[in-house]
Write a structure and sequence with these properties.
The protein has 352 residues and is an alpha/beta fold. The chain has eleven helices and 16 strands.
Length: 352
């Protein structure tokens, strides 16, 4: 089979590989829809995970089952399926301890294009199929369905990590596709003011549609100063970090109230350290908590997020700004994510 791969740091290309082997609890799928992610960009061009050689990229897909293992109970050949970007080993001790995303070690639940070949190939392997696949609901838009792989669950996990409650004032730093879904999640959880930090008009407009009450444009001044002015010096109750860089934590701490919580789902692809401002952190005693996490993955989460789409509570299809047709277009879509033209939010590749 062919696949689009990271050849080494900074270099990608099409390669030929053997079709993956199906274990007794696993499934082999072929893609129906694919989406590249900024994480793929960090992996290839920043070398964020270290060097990878001839590793097929991609972790966002809707697929069709072409083979199942002998122990798989709930899926059969021909089923159309949602596939989570994070595919834990659900019988691991880490999963039993409540951290399935770290089954086998830190971040080891993230297997696609990290520890094994990803979904940008003619076929791909899914471990623990009964735990990591979910049936594609009839009639669901493929763009919306593909966002269930990563953009929605990651954005929602930012809201979970920030412990957003009804009536909270919340800042969402970064309103790319993940941050936009964090805005939607905060609105569903009943946040009062939602300050969405970003500069691109299409993202700002969609953030307002998803529930943001105000846009904080970092090109118009320091975002901490803007938020402190909006909150009359009080700061916000919760911060969701869905973009920025290592220095963003400095800003998040400074805009956060004592007793507040930061939820980070931003993939920090470069640098060795983050800086926490000592005084604004209350000299270590300000009860300003930082939670950073990889979303859990799994079948149940995918099914619940699909319900939100089916009941029109969220509209992730609106993230899709560019659509391609054919597996051979994956490299073009990935370069869009790397170059980030102003009209881009998220590209989608439909496999004809």
């Amino acid at each position: 089979m062919k696949g689009f791969a990271m050849l080494t740091i900074g270099k990608t290309g099409w390669i030929e590989k053997d079709v993956p082997t199906c274990g007794p609890s696993d499934a082999i799928c072929k893609p129906i829809a694919l989406a590249p992610c900024t994480s793929d960009v960090h992996t290839v061009w920043a070398g964020a995970l270290g060097d990878r050689h001839d590793m097929i990229l991609g972790h966002e897909a809707v697929g069709e089952v072409v083979e199942v293992g002998t122990l798989v109970k709930d899926f059969k050949v021909g089923d159309k399926v949602l596939i989570s970007a994070i595919t834990p080993d659900w019988n691991s001790l880490q999963a039993q301890g409540g951290f399935p995303m770290h089954s086998g070690g830190m971040l080891a639940g993230w297997k696609f294009s990290n520890f094994k070949d990803g979904v940008f190939g003619e076929f791909f392997h899914v471990n623990d199929a009964d735990g990591n696949l979910a049936h594609l609901p009839d009639g669901m838009d493929l763009g919306a369905a593909c966002m269930i792989s990563d953009m929605i669950p990651t954005g929602f996990h930012g809201c979970e990590l920030a412990e957003v409650e009804f009536g909270d004032n919340v800042a969402v730093i970064g309103i790319g596709p993940v941050g936009l879904m964090s805005v939607a999640a905060a609105a569903i959880r009943g946040a009062a003011h939602i300050y969405a930090v970003g500069s691109r008009k299409n993202c700002a407009d969609l953030a307002k549609e998803f529930g943001a009450t105000e846009i904080i444009n970092y090109r118009e001044g320091d975002i901490v100063e803007q938020i402190m002015e909006k909150t009359h010096g009080a700061g916000v109750d919760k911060v969701i970090v869905a973009g920025g860089d290592n220095g963003t934590f400095d800003q998040a701490i400074r805009m956060l109230k004592p007793g507040g919580v930061i939820g980070n789902v931003n993939y920090l692809g470069e640098g060795d350290w983050i800086n926490i401002p000592r005084g604004d952190w209350g000299c270590g005693m300000g009860h300003k908590k930082i939670n950073g996490g990889l979303m859990p993955g799994g079948r149940l989460r995918s099914k619940k997020l699909a319900r939100l789409i089916q009941t029109n509570r969220i509209h992730p299809e609106k993230l899709i700004t560019h659509t391609f047709h054919g597996l051979e277009c994956v490299d073009q879509a990935l370069m869009l994510m790397k170059d980030k033209p102003k009209d881009l939010i998220k590209p989608l590749v439909l496999i004809n």
